[in-house]
Write a structure and sequence with these properties.
By secondary structure, this protein is of the alpha/beta class. The chain has three domains: 32 residues, no CATH class; 158 residues, Peptidoglycan recognition protein-like (Lysozyme-like); 44 residues, Membrane-bound Lytic Murein Transglycosylase D, Chain A (Roll). The protein is built from seven helices and 14 strands. The strands form five sheets. It has a six-stranded mixed beta sheet with strand order 3-7-6-11-5-12, with helices on both faces. It has a two-stranded antiparallel ribbon with strand order 1-2. A hairpin with a 2-residue loop joins strand 9 and strand 10. Helix 3 packs across helix 5. The structure holds zinc ion (ZN). The site of zinc ion has 5 residues, from loops.
């Protein structure tokens, strides 16, 4: 028998797909009968690598009910970010880091509290780290660098798995910029990260539906995310800049090192970190 793709089966039998599981035998208009494989992606444990961070503590019995998305603000790999989290002196971490390739690294087990959101509040509850899982997405966060399809796919699958595992409602998928206090303190995830598409795709997966196709944006040919700069604003310190950019005041010495001899003044243009050493 000919196996046709989901697209056809779903269009004809959308609601049956949910009730009947992965393989159904429909009768098409005109009387043709066939077996159709429904390829709505199953929610499975994602493949991941572990680079565990010591920067975590217990949840004190508080249940996980929120997932917070971040961008890393750096062109470096997920492994490089995970190594920074591995340093106890960095005092930061997240549960997962998703590389541009779609590789997923786990840095903190879900049952522990990772240190990703800082001062934060969600649904009138302070200290979002207590009840959330943090996912860092590798992207420089300049609203230009595209989020590749493999990466977005990995974020959706990981988030769907976590939502299913911990019973996180879709309404509790959020971004650092939406929970940071004071409001406006953080800008991740960047404007060109289509969080509505990601939330909807997770919702589709939880309902057994195939997510809509993802449209990848293109950066201009001359675009080079390793050449990004930061312009100093009034009141900035090295620590506040490192916190703003990388969620990590502890990245201040590294930032200073690549900007030697510079005194911070409003308007001063700084080089940004390309990676953690
Ligand atoms: Zn963040």
């Amino acid at each position: 028998m000919t196996k046709l793709k989901t697209v056809i089966a779903l269009s004809i039998l959308g609601s049956l797909a949910l009730a009947c599981g992965p393989t159904i035998t429909p009768t098409l208009r005109g009387g043709t009968t066939g077996t159709f494989s429904l390829t709505a992606p199953a929610i499975e444990p994602p493949k991941l690598t572990e680079i565990l961070s010591p920067n975590s503590n217990g949840r004190d019995g508080v249940a996980i009910d929120t997932i917070v998305l971040h961008h890393t603000a750096m062109p470096s790999t997920a492994a490089n970010i995970a190594k920074f989290f591995q340093d106890p002196k960095s005092k930061v971490s997240s549960h997962y880091v998703v590389d541009r390739t779609g590789e997923i690294i786990r840095c903190v087990p879900d049952d522990l509290r990772s240190w990703h959101a800082g001062r934060s509040s969600f649904q009138d509850r302070p200290n979002v780290n207590n009840f959330s899982i943090g996912i860092e997405i590798c992207n420089v966060g300049d609203n230009i660098e595209p989020y590749p399809a493999a990466q977005v796919d990995a974020v959706i699958r990981l988030t769907a798995w976590l939502a299913k595992t911990h019973n996180v409602p879709v309404a509790n998928l959020t971004r650092h910029r939406d929970v940071a206090i004071p409001a406006g303190r953080k800008n991740d995830t960047s404007d060109n990260f289509d969080q509505k598409y990601v939330y909807k795709s997770v919702q589709d997966m939880l309902a057994g539906r195939r997510p809509a196709a993802y449209r990848v944006a293109k950066a201009p040919a001359s675009y080079d995310p390793t050449k990004l700069t930061y312009t100093v604003a009034p009141g900035d310190t090295w620590e506040s800049i490192a916190d703003d950019l990388y969620d990590a005041p502890t990245a201040a010495p590294a930032l200073r090192q690549i900007n030697p001899g510079i005194t911070l003044r409003p308007g001063t243009v700084l080089k940004r970190l390309v990676s953690y050493r």
